[in-house]
Amino acid sequence: MPNRKSLYRAMEILPLLLVVVLVFSAICLANSKEIVLRYDGQEKVVTTILEDPRSILEESGVKVGKEDRILISPANAEKKTMEVIELKRALPVTIEKYGVSKKFYTGKATVGEALDALAINYEGKTVYPAVDTPITSDLEIHILGRFDELHEEEQPIEPPVEFVDNLEKPYGENKVLEPGVPGKMKVTRKTTLKDGLFQTHIISKTVLEEPRRELVERGMARSIETSRGRMRYNKVMTMEITAYTLGEGSGTGRTSIGLVPYEGIVAVDPRVIPYYTKLYIPGYGIAMAGDTGGAIRGNRLDVFMHDWHRAIQWGRRTLDVYILE
Q: How many angstroms separate the Cα of 257 from the Cα of each of 245, 261, 270, 300?
């Protein structure tokens, strides 16, 4: 057991330690400040006694890359705004000089600043885009050589077309409701001498004016969307539809009109649907009336399929069949 002297000494020191802790806490509290951190699309407020922006970010669990850029907006007492530390991530850029391209990451604001930071000499050279151009992700920077030339030209941008379907207007009859206006685009080409030959390629496209869409009313009456596009039809008939294969029945291996059966041939009652009539059958596709059968009477169809299992899976269906023009 500790003796009484040790116990008394500990009791004397304890208040002093408590005072030290309280004084230290008061100093930290007096020197602490609230700061807004913005990074990776997030924003949060932290309280810290640190002064170095990088340390403040890392203290908050934010990893700062070597080429990342830190922007600081001081606090404003009059506007009652807090200090803001914003982290701008380094962006990938490609720098091409004398025909050699290399990818870098930079946190600098402009092309000139990025080239300076990377110690790339461009003195007396033409730089494209210009040195005061803001850095954007995947920007291509070209430092032109002695035999390099830039050519710029404007090209039109075709306006997009938006359709409004009118189910009452005959198919194929269209009416422009709002005429479109073409846009403008600046195309920059670079001509360079390589292996004794001049070669030209596009290095940038810049939209100068966005095109304005064209609004068109489109007649869609009596039409159906098929695998071959939208097609017109004369009428719709509700039919009972089954499927058959080449091995069924005791036929000659040819259809009633002398064709070798293929998927797209259907058996019909020619008194209801004449031979050679083109049809659209949902779930089967575009077909032609080219066969018949003893059980095919009235509003019945038999669709040909090569695969017996598919024919069984088809079963018996009642569908609207479109008689195409």
A: 17, 10, 11, 18
Q: What are the two backbone dihedrals, phi and then psi, of residue 309, each rounded to the nearest 5 degrees?
A: -65, -40
Q: Do 88 and 69 meet the contact criterion of CB atoms below 8 Å apart? A: yes
What does DSSP assign to residue 158?
P
Q: In this predicted structure, what is the pLDDT of residue 250?
A: 45
CA atoms of 317 and 217, how far apart (whole Å): 36
- Evaluate whether 60 touches 37 at the Cβ level (below 8 Å): yes
Q: Is the pLDDT reported for residue 16 higher than 70?
A: no
Cβ pair 124, 167 in contact under 8 A: no
**Full 3-state SS string of 237-261:** EEEEEEEECCCCCCCCCCCCCCCCC
pLDDT of 81 reads: 67
When the candidates are 3.40.50.300, 2.10.109.10, 2.40.160.40, 2.20.230.10, the CATH number that belongs to 152-215 is: 2.20.230.10
CATH class for the domain made up of 33-88: alpha beta
Whether CATH 1.40.20.10 fits 229-324? no
Residue 149 has a pLDDT of 87
Answer with the residue of higher pLDDT: 281 or 168.
Answer: 281
Q: Read off the DSSP letter of residue 298.
A: S
